[in-house]
Task: structure prediction
Amino acid sequence: MEAKQQRQQALNDSRRALILDAARSVFERLGIEGASIREIAKQAGYTPGAFYSYFENKEAIYGALLAESLERLNAAVDAAGSATATPADLLDAKASAWFGFYAANPRDLDLGFYLVQGMQPRGLTAELNYQLNDRLHDALRPCEAALQAMGLNAEEALRENTSLFAHGVGLLLLQHTGRIRMFGQDASMLFESYVIALVERLQRGA
Amino acid sequence: MEAKQQRQQALNDSRRALILDAARSVFERLGIEGASIREIAKQAGYTPGAFYSYFENKEAIYGALLAESLERLNAAVDAAGSATATPADLLDAKASAWFGFYAANPRDLDLGFYLVQGMQPRGLTAELNYQLNDRLHDALRPCEAALQAMGLNAEEALRENTSLFAHGVGLLLLQHTGRIRMFGQDASMLFESYVIALVERLQRGA
Amino acid sequence: MEAKQQRQQALNDSRRALILDAARSVFERLGIEGASIREIAKQAGYTPGAFYSYFENKEAIYGALLAESLERLNAAVDAAGSATATPADLLDAKASAWFGFYAANPRDLDLGFYLVQGMQPRGLTAELNYQLNDRLHDALRPCEAALQAMGLNAEEALRENTSLFAHGVGLLLLQHTGRIRMFGQDASMLFESYVIALVERLQRGA
Amino acid sequence: MEAKQQRQQALNDSRRALILDAARSVFERLGIEGASIREIAKQAGYTPGAFYSYFENKEAIYGALLAESLERLNAAVDAAGSATATPADLLDAKASAWFGFYAANPRDLDLGFYLVQGMQPRGLTAELNYQLNDRLHDALRPCEAALQAMGLNAEEALRENTSLFAHGVGLLLLQHTGRIRMFGQDASMLFESYVIALVERLQRGA
DNA sequence: AATGAATGAGCCTTCATTCAT
DNA sequence: CATGAATGAAGGCTCATTCAT
Result:
């Protein structure tokens, strides 16, 4: 009996994942506006009605999508850098990891901002919001740890990490919207410069 | 005769402005997705058809809204700083001006990024896009001039200015989406720190 | 007093003619579906409201347009052929006149059929319909007279004339809708053949 | 399984046919201009949205309607005449078949001409247009064959067939618009006369 | 007589969602 | 669990017509 229930649950989860995958694919192909439930269901090999067996409504899937996006982000950050590196190298590696992730997957960035801005009525409960925040913070924590290893105290490290994140996000947004071309600049290069200047400043300060 | 035409023109302009105001208000209240023409017209005290006497289509009003927003931005930047200030003070004053403008009017930031991303079919013609880009650039140019006055050559100034803009935009976005509270930080303070560090770095470099 | 009234009347008529001309021009340019009152008024140098000083509603102008079209048709037929021609030559000349008129002005053909088919509620009163019918008949009467001059009695002439008209109208319709290309044929040539065969038949019969 | 799919398909087809019928009925009642999707859907007992499960857009249903009309036309022509008849009798039978079909169903004639004139945006793709043209041609081909059997070569037969079609179409149009009453004539009788005269001419020529 | 702003009803179309099967 | 037909509300937009000026 229990075994059967477990099998059922596993099946259910995998089918839910199937739809989630389809949603990501559609979302990537057509953007957040073009992603209709019809299209998502079709991509998953289902009919529209089936969608509602796995997600309560359309907005719900964006929450799930963002959660999954944050897992991939964390995986990318975790994989970066090596244990034997200096704190400065580690900072660079970890920061480049999250920046590179969003540079390569701009839709994942959209997702995060869309959810907070465009979606309030349902879909993003306060609790889910907290969870998502925590996972984002997790992805940024390695940078914060490296900053502390470089001599900053907790408060300073948090502040620098926030600035670092904001800087990257700003560059990514300018890049994603094409505004950076207006300046004839390259987002990745500017980000790298920022990290280098930051390391220098800290080393001089230390 | 001429007086009558002028009166007519003035009336017409003021009604157009009325609708523009309504659009801004609806946009603020319901976001860019909820801002339908029906809703904008209703807010302005009109029926939907009347809208089209003043704007060619839906996208057109966002173009007008952004154009007007950029004028207000430029006005804010122009008003900031004094002629006798040092270049460093001027940089701070001008940067704080555009940052403060967007901090106080977050929807104006949305507008700029929406128009670049979500608007293609009509309304944002290539020419209009150039004009809008130019006006944004105008608002940022005083910072660039100050950077040059502090000893940077044209290329360096452009790069630093781009970084400065990206940093501000990133902070504004984090603030606008509430993410910055997650870090227990304040966007304005962090921006000010960035400017101070920048000035320091330049003065040491000079 | 009376003189003044006459002047007024003349003015009025000429302005009505102005709008009628504009309507014909718009109708020619944009077809019957694309001809809006806005467009007609604009073409005439008026604003939409002025239209209603001269025509009761949109459909009314089509009646007037058709009436005027039939006057031009009659003028074209009257101008054709010469007094000294044989009846056979006259038949050919008069028939070619009305056929040529519609071949050169296909919109005038549309008008006639649109008014009868698509327009009933208002605009085409029974009385107006009679008047228009009479004027069309006037344009075809010279052919009927020629047929009688060739020896047919009144009844026979009417029948042959009806057939002749139907034949021409059929060819014009096929030409106007492009269907005649499907047969690789030319409408004018086929019409001419019909007339020749008709003359031959009558002459043999006589 | 297969049986179920077949049943589904049959159901689907019958519902599509239901809407097609509704469209034909509305079209007959209100003309081509009054036939809105709202009205068609209502007549079929549906809400407007349902329409789009069966037809891609408004023009598509007219394409389908015409296609189906041409099938009925062909069926009528195919059923006419007998194998043992003389070529002249066959010509008469086949010509009377298509003429009779359109005399009994004048809206089918409208449809054919509307689709060629009023339908451009989508719906009448070049390919569909060819197919429809071919089916119309199919319906007229038996007459052409009979003309050849009576001694005409291919080119002559095509020309006579075109004239025959034009004559019939002209008469049908005059009848449909009531203009023929103006001449106190009957379309069917005049068509029959045309065919008889044609046969006579050919036999004398042979 | 003419203006032209405004209406109101209508158009085609899309889509999240429901529900009987 | 899945279907998929159907709904209903909304979207952007057009246009003949009215009416205060």
About this structure: Residues 8, 12, 15, 46-50, 53 of chain B lie near DNA strand E (CB under 10 Å from a C1').
